[in-house]
Amino acid sequence: MSKYNTEEKVSDYIDALNNEQKSEIIGTTDDQELEKLMATVRLVRTLREPALPEEGYPHRLAQAVSDKLKKEKQSSSNQSVKSAPKSIRRILPPMAALAASLLMLLLINWFGLFNQDVVYAMEKAVAQLSNYHGILEIRTKNAAGVEWLVRQVEIWSEDDKYAIKQDDGTVTVNNGQQKWQISQEKKEVVLLPLLPDPTGNSFDLRDEAKRAKQYPHTIVGSELVAGRQTTKLAISPPGGREYYLWVDTETNLPIQLQTAMQNALQTTYTFVSFEPNTEINPQRFAYQVPEGYQVVENNPGQLVATIEEAVAISGLNPLLPEQAPTRILAFEDGIVFDYGDTTIKETLPEGEFVLAPDASLGTAASGQLEVWQERLRWRQDGIEIQVEGVQRVELARQIAPDLALPNSNQDLVSKAQVKVSVDKEIVEADQKQVDRGSSPWQLDPLQVALVFVNLKVTPEGIQGEPVIPMSSFKLVENNSAEAVVEVANGPIERVYLKKLVRQDDTGIWSVVGYDPR
Amino acid sequence: MISADDYKKAKEGDLKAIENICVVTWEPLYRFIYYKVQNREEAEDITQETYVKTLTYLQKNNAPQKNFLGFMKTVSLNIIRDRWRRKKRAGVIVNFQEINPEETVNIDEQNDIAQRLFLKSALAKLSQEQQMILDLRIIKGYSVAETAKLVGKTEAAVRTAQHRALLALARILDDEG
């Protein structure tokens, strides 16, 4: 075999592995040199992050394994199944995917005209909805595209009351006055704080219809969801990320919601069964302790009429916004002001103010303001304040008038003493790698700074625990486009980072400069 | 995280129980297999076969619940070895990093770590340019054309350089191994 051929063959072999083609495509060879080089390529390749399966893999895997076991059980009496299991990847033929995308493209163009009608009809249908009963399935997908079933819940909803039954039989009821949970397993009735109520933030039909109307939206297709024909809407909240809502064409009610990818997680809520305007037994929302059950009070908080009562219960002197809340709840260690779509929670601070690693930073009351998803959090006058919901900025400003949200146009990195040159093509390739689900640490400015600084200390690579540990790194600025990390020890005092490819939650951070110590 | 009930139901083919087990265990198992076979489709096939074989085994035996994942890794190694033997018989040479059937899964993992360190030190002995070319082509997965652009060489020069780098690396590994 000529030298030219060996070079070409090795190169083709690397390409085949890079394209995830089966390793035997090169075929048999008697060329010992080529064989050895191929083995060396495979060996080097073990240093690379593996290519992970396509989204929804665990579910498809479980389905394929279950089918296979059932089939084997059926045929075990007369014959043994010897053939290798079929790859579940082959269940979705590529032609079907192609046809689906073509159909989607047609629908996008066609449906654009009827955009308003769908949302109007949904608003009307939701306004006429007196109650509903349904089974909601909640699935989560991570940035690597792996999807799993979080849980399935049965819901009864009427006005501001709801009852939710979990997979394990636990029932949570909120009747507007009280909230409690009945655990069959423990034979307990646990009284819960009425607010904040996270179930209200997940998938409420009324809220979704309101948001769809309020926010810019477009129809992006038509899909079959849980056996129902639906219209798929893309909704773009101002300043937020696009998410999707599927509206049943028969009832005009929303039956599926998919959140935007937040913190590398995306959640899909689907009503796998749904009965609107049905009959719900009022007893379902009545507080009753079943016989033989014990009542547990878990700091449930109390609805109070005045601030004075709240102060007496919580021992906290709260900072008050101008706008009066709809309800006030007092706990042993805090107070919650409820505005319907937004809550303000004030508590006594515990320990240092630690920021969520992927939060952006603003300022409030001359200190740090954590901006994370729909939540603002800061400390003021010895109180920790957390405002969550759609009116968060307006209400937070009523408490801290100097509140400043991160300004992504603000220049943070130009003051770096040493500039680090970045190869744009490599950064773009890294971004693509992260988009495919590999190396998600590049989305965290602290992790990127940690790798950069430790590679300066040990250029041969980080083996085991890094020399300069994570506890030495502190995020001091982050406007979601540029960030500054301070390092307590080592040769570098400050690291300057920038999102070079895109400036949203999915953009990777690159080191663009540093200050030597 | 996996209940005894899940194991019991899973071996009967109960989808929910299997899903509970898969959600917790698929990723470390898949990574382990991918490390050996370096191909996604093959890793997916072997992962699936591993679950089927493990659960079939559980129909007659008790689950090694303490180290269920370790047990599955051993099952997967056996599958890889069987496939390797089949391919060898069919005349296709696929060397899955010199699989030794006598190894237990734990020793195998230790070997993997030692091999990684050994490989890194061997790579560090190559010239900067050779390291960069292997990094771009094999670890980062760039095409010859992309690599040529990144290092400012012609495509033919990249192929020659990568060939030389691999020869040099194989020699270092031979000498030190």
Which blocks of ≥5 consecutive residues of chain B have pLDDT under 50? 89-104
Mean pLDDT of chain B: 79
The number of helical runs of chain A is 10
Shape designation of chain B = elongated
Question: What's the CATH class label of the largest domain in chain B?
Answer: Mainly Alpha
- Sum up the overall morphology of chain A in one term: globular
Number of strands of chain B: 0
Number of domain modules of chain A: 4
Q: How much helical structure, as a percent, in the residues of chain B?
A: over 70%
Total separate domains of chain B: 2
For the CA atoms, what is the radius of gyration of chain A?
A: 28 Å
Biggest beta sheet attributes of chain B: none
Write up what this structure looks like.
The complex is a heterodimer of chains A (517) and B (177). Chain A is an alpha+beta fold and 517 residues long. Chain A folds into four domains: 3-45, no CATH class; 101-276, outer membrane lipoprotein receptor (LolB), chain A; 302-399, no CATH class; 418-516, no CATH class. Helix content of chain A is 25%, strand content 31%. Chain A has helices at 3-18, 32-45, 57-75, 94-111, 115-127, 205-214, 307-314, 392-399, 424-435, 445-457; strands spanning 131-142, 147-158, 161-165, 171-174, 179-183, 188-192, 217-225, 228-235, 243-248, 254-258, 265-276, 294-297, 302-304, 327-330, 334-338, 342-347, 360-364, 367-372, 375-380, 383-389, 418-419, 473-478, 482-487, 492-499, 509-516. A twelve-stranded mixed sheet of chain A has the order 7-8-9-10-11-1-2-3-4-5-6-12, sandwiched between helices. An eight-stranded antiparallel sheet of chain A has the order 13-14-15-16-20-19-18-17, covered by helices on one side. A five-stranded antiparallel sheet of chain A has the order 21-25-24-23-22, covered by helices on one side. Chain B has 177 residues and is mainly alpha-helical. Chain B contains eight helices and no strands. Chain B has helices spanning 4-10, 15-37, 40-60, 68-89, 105-123, 128-139, 144-151, 155-176. The termini of chain B are far apart. Chains A and B meet through helix 1, helix 2, helix 3 and helix 9 of A and helix 2, helix 3, helix 5, helix 6 and helix 7 of B.
